[in-house]
Design a protein that fits this description.
Two copies of one chain form a homodimer.
Chain A (H helix, E strand, L loop, with lengths): L1 H9 L3 E3 L11 E3 L1 H20 L4 E4 L8 H5 L2 H4 L1 E6 L6 E3 L28 E4 L3 E3 L9 E3 L5 H5 L2 H7 L6 E10 L14 E11 L4 H18 L7 E5 L11 E9 L2 E12 L1 H10 L5 E2 L5 E2 L2 E8 H12 E6 L2 E6 L10 E5 L5 H15 L4 E3 L5 H11 L3 E5 L1 H6 L1 E6 L5 E5 L3 H10 L9
Parallel strand pairs in A: 3-9, 19-20, 19-21
Antiparallel strand pairs in A: 1-2, 4-5, 4-6, 7-8, 9-10, 10-16, 11-12, 12-13, 13-16, 14-15, 17-18, 21-22, 22-23
Chain lengths: ~450, ~450
C-alpha cells in the first residue's frame, strides 16, 4: 500500500488535502491523473449501468435533503457507532475498536485492568454530518449531509415511475458525493469521510427478488473482470445475519484482496421493501407499482453500491507492478487501457530536432481530438517512457530519424515492451482498434 | 421561466427535491435527461478548458478542507450577508432586500413607519454551512462546506507546480459541488444552496494579467456562442468598484438575458496575487514561482468561474421554442446537438409490425455503442416525435414499409422538420458527420 500511495503522490494522482495547513485527517485531493482515472471509472460504470441498458435511468439528487428523509430511512436512529469517552485523557474512541485505538495512555478492552484510562459506558454516535439550513441555528433548521445516495433515489421513485413510464423490473442509477463522520478513517482513500458513491436501485416484483439479487452479483463481478481485475483477487461473500444493515434482507459483498487483506469492494444488497414502505409510512405518499390491469404491489429493491474510492484503490493495487528490465528497475501501472488516464504518448526521439518535433506535434494534434493523449519532449527518451509507464499509458508513439524518411513511427507497448513500426497515417485507426480490443492483466488471472 | 420549469418537470429534467416531504426550499433533483444534459455541459467545459489545451491540468479537491483555508481566503471574515431580525414575528431577513421580503407582517425599509415589524440593527451572517468533523462537537472540530472550489486549487498550487513541471502561464481546472447558505434562494435552479461550480485558476506573470483577463473573457464568450447561445442574448459587463469581491482586482460578468432579465452567467475575475499571498502568510509555505534562472514572483490569477446551474438555465431558456405546425402547437428544445441529452431516436413507424420493430432495434443497437440514442415504439408516431422535440433530440430515424423493401430510413430534423431518406447502412456515418457540423440557433443571432 505504501508503494501505491507514494506513486500516487509522485505522479500527481492523489495529494493529502490541505497539506500546507497540516492536512485534515484522511482527506485527499485528486490531481490531474487521478481526475482522469476517476472520470473513466464513472463513465464506464454509467455505460454498463445506464447507457447499454433500456431498463435503467439516471438521477442526480441533492446532498442536503429534507431531514425527514433520514428519519424514515432509519439513519437518524440506526446509523451509529458506539463511542466511549476517557475521563482521564478526554479522548473519544470507538467501543468496538478499542484494541486498535491510540492515545498517550492507551485504552484497553478491559478498563478495570489499566489505571491510565477511565472509560465511560459506550453511547451511540451518529455518523451523519449535521448542519443548519437558513438563517436560524435551532432545532428547526437542522439538516444532514447524505451518508448515501440511495435515499435520493427512493424519494424520487414515483416521479420516475410516472415520467419514464416504467414497470418493474427497472432501475435508477446515481453517482454522487456522500459524507460519513467516520471516527477512524484510514488506509489511504480506502476509508474516508467524503467519498463518491455509485449506487443503483433496481425495483423488482417481490417474488423475483432472489433471482435478481443473484443476477446483479454476477453482472457486477463480470464488470470488474472486464476492466482487468484478476479472478484470483475477487470473491463474493454472503453476509451473516449479524453483519447485515438494518434495511437488508440479504447482502453479498464483492471482495477484493487489497494490500490490507480481503475487504469489501462493492455491496450487493437485497433491501426488500424496507425503504419504499418506510417512506410511504412517513410521507403519506404511496410508493407502489400499479399496473394498467390493476395489479398493485410494493417492489423489492436490489442494490449494487460501490464507492469510487474502493474501485480506485483496487485498480491501482491490481495494476501496480515492479520488474527489472535490462538491469533497471521499472515501475508500471498495468491498467486496462479503458481505465488508463492517458491513452497514448507522442514522443519525438530527439527534442532538439525541429522536424521530429513538428511531426510529433502534428500526430499529437490528430489524436487528441479523440482521446486523452500526451505530448512530451523533455529529457531522455528512457525517462519519458518510464514516466508514461508509471501513469499507465498503454501505448507510446515515437517519431525518429526513420519517420522523416519513410513516414513510419514506432509504437511501444507498455506491458510487453514490444516495439513495432506503423505508417504514421494509420496510427489513429490502429489506436482506435487497440483500445477496443479485450485486455487481460499480464499478471494472469 | 414558468414554461421552462414546467417542461423540466414534465419531461424529467428537474424535480423539486424531497417533494414527498413537502420539499426543502429551492433544492432540486435532476432526472434522467437533466443528468445527461449536465454531463454534456461538464464534458464540453472540460474539453475546452483541459483536453484541448497543453497549459491546463485538472484537479478534484475535497469539499471539507482544513478550516484555516477559509480564514486565509477571507471567507470567514467577509463572506457575509447583512441580516435583521424582527422582534415581533421572529423572522429573519436580508437587510439589503427588505423590499422583497415576505412575512405575515411584511417588513418595510422604514421600520419606524410600520408598527407590525420591529427590526433589529443588521448584523453579519456568514454564508458558509458549518459542521463538525470527528467525535467532538466543540470549537476545535468546526469545519465548513466549501462555498467555492477555487481555494482547493490555491492550496494545491505548489503540488501542481512541482509535479506537472509547470511555468506560468498555466492553469488548474476543477468541477465540483459547492454550498452557500443563501437566505433568499430562488428563481428555479438560478440561485440554489448547493450547486456545481466549474472554475479555472490561470496563473500568469503579474505584468501579463490584464492581457490574460481580456483573453479569457473572449475565450469564454466564444465557448457560449459555439454551443448555441445567441449573440444578442450575451454581453460582457465590467464590475464597478463597489460590486467587486474582497479578492478581486477587476471582474467582468458574462451576462445572459435570462427570462428574469440580464444576470450573471459567468464571472471572469482578475484575483491579482491576493490568494497566493494570503495562503503564504497563513500557512508559512511560500506559494510562488521560481524559475531555473532564479527568476521569482507570485503569479497573478485570472479566474473564469461559472456554475453548472446557470449554464443549464441559459441553455434551456435559449433553446425553448413554441410554434404552430399544421395547426398544432409544437414545443421544442432547439439545443446545440452536442448539448442534447439524446442524439437520435430510432422509431418503428408501426409498433405492431414485427419486421419494423426488429429492424429498428438492430439500428438502435448499432448506434447506442457510440451515442446516447433512444428507441421508442409506444403510441402514435406524432406523439413520439413531439416527445423527442421536447427533450431536444436533433434527429429521428423512422423505419417504415419502404425500409423493409429498399433498406432506407427517414431522418427527421428537429429544427427544420425537413425529412430525407438515407440508406440504413449509412446512418451511423451520417449521424457522426451531422453531430460534428457547426450548429446555429434557428432563432438567429
Amino acid at each position: 500500500m505504501d508503494k501505491i500511495v507514494s506513486l500516487c503522490r509522485r505522479r500527481g494522482f492523489v495529494f493529502p488535502s490541505s497539506e500546507i495547513y497540516g492536512g485534515l485527517g484522511s482527506t485527499y485531493d485528486y490531481g490531474h491523473y487521478g481526475v482522469l482515472l476517476r472520470d473513466n471509472i464513472r463513465q464506464l460504470w454509467l455505460r454498463a449501468m445506464v447507457r447499454e441498458r433500456d431498463d435503467i435511468v439516471a438521477l442526480d439528487s441533492a446532498v442536503i435533503l429534507n431531514p425527514r428523509v433520514w428519519e424514515a430511512s432509519g439513519h437518524l436512529a440506526e446509523f451509529n457507532d458506539p463511542l466511549v469517552d476517557c475521563r482521564t485523557c478526554k479522548l473519544r474512541f470507538r467501543a468496538d475498536q478499542l484494541g486498535q485505538s491510540q492515545c498517550g495512555r492507551k485504552p484497553s478492552k478491559h478498563p478495570g485492568e489499566t489505571p491510565e484510562c477511565d472509560l465511560t459506558e459506550p453511547r451511540q454516535f451518529n455518523l451523519m454530518f449535521q448542519t443548519h439550513v437558513g438563517a436560524l441555528q435551532d432545532e428547526s433548521s437542522v439538516a444532514y449531509l447524505r451518508p448515501e445516495t440511495a435515499q435520493g433515489i427512493f424519494i424520487n421513485f414515483k416521479n420516475v415511475l410516472q415520467l419514464a413510464r416504467r414497470k418493474p423490473p427497472f432501475g435508477i442509477a446515481q453517482i454522487g458525493k456522500a459524507f460519513r463522520n467516520e471516527i477512524t478513517p484510514g488506509n489511504f482513500v480506502f476509508r474516508v469521510r467524503e467519498f463518491e458513491l455509485m449506487e443503483m436501485e433496481y425495483f423488482v416484483p417481490p417474488d423475483e427478488a432472489a433471482e435478481w439479487h443473484r443476477y446483479w452479483i454476477e453482472e457486477r463481478m463480470g464488470w470488474y473482470r472486464k476492466y482487468g481485475l484478476r479472478e484470483s483477487m475477487l470473491r463474493a461473500r454472503e453476509h451473516g445475519e449479524e453483519e447485515r444493515s438494518h434495511y437488508s434482507s440479504a447482502t453479498s459483498d464483492l471482495e477484493y484482496r487489497y494490500p490490507i487483506g480481503w475487504q469489501e469492494l462493492e455491496g450487493v444488497a437485497n433491501r426488500g421493501d424496507f425503504d419504499l414502505t418506510q417512506h410511504t409510512k412517513h410521507s403519506g405518499t404511496k410508493l407502489e407499482y400499479v399496473g394498467s390491469d390493476g395489479e398493485r404491489y410494493t417492489p423489492w429493491v436490489i442494490e449494487p453500491a460501490v464507492s469510487m474510492e474502493r474501485i480506485f484503490v483496487a485498480l491501482l493495487a491490481d495494476a501496480y507492478h515492479e520488474e527489472e528490465v535490462a538491469e533497471r528497475q521499472r515501475t508500471v501501472l498495468q491498467l486496462h487501457p479503458a481505465m488508463s488516464p492517458v491513452k497514448a504518448a507522442v514522443l519525438p526521439l530527439i527534442n532538439k530536432n525541429e522536424d521530429m518535433v513538428a511531426r510529433a506535434r502534428r500526430l499529437y494534434e490528430e489524436l487528441r481530438g479523440e482521446w486523452v493523449v500526451e505530448y512530451d519532449d523533455s529529457g531522455q527518451i528512457g525517462r519519458r517512457y518510464r514516466r508514461q509507464d508509471e501513469i499507465g499509458t498503454p501505448f507510446a508513439f515515437t517519431i525518429d530519424e526513420q519517420t522523416l524518411e519513410d513516414e513510419t513511427v514506432t509504437v511501444r507497448h507498455r506491458d510487453s515492451l514490444a516495439q513495432e513500426r506503423l505508417p504514421i497515417s494509420g496510427v489513429k485507426a490502429w489506436l482506435g482498434d487497440a483500445l477496443r480490443r479485450d485486455w487481460r492483466s499480464p499478471k494472469g488471472d
